[in-house]
Amino acid sequence: MLEATEEESDQPLTPLLDYGCSQWRASSRHAADLYDSGVKLWKKEDLVDIENQLAQSIVTEIFTVRRFDGSIIRIKNPMFGVQRPIWYYASIEKKKKGLL
Question: Are 41 and 31 in contact (CB under 8 A)?
Fold first, then answer.
């Protein structure tokens, strides 16, 4: 999992985002626009890290994701403690179709 402390960086940690907040939506829209224009948003290792965090979502209260500028954002996991989170079903369907 990506981790950053205030001691490791020159900038203070960013505030924790709740899924679905207006800042989250604006950032997601910006990411979609960049993606549509052909910009690579993440490195392969970033995507692997995200998948690993999702696999541990039952016990992971806060996700950490690298922003496009290289800084780290902390996101509250809306499925923390949920036995079968929403992304669980998507991964099961992909496995059934041989995509995973």
Answer: yes
Question: Does residue 10 fall inside a structural domain?
Answer: no
Residues in a beta bridge with 76: 62
CB-based contact 19:75 (threshold 8 Å): yes
Q: Domain limits at 89?
A: 22-96
Instruction: Determine the distance from the C-alpha atom of residue 7 to the mean position of all C-alpha atoms in its chain, rounded to a whole number.
Output: 23
Summarize pLDDT for 35-57 with one digit per residue, the tens.
899 988 888 999 899 888 888 88
* Residues sharing a CB contact under 8 Å with residue 53, sequence separation 6 or more, in sequence order: 1, 60, 63, 64
Q: Give the C-alpha separation, 61 to 22, whole Å.
A: 20
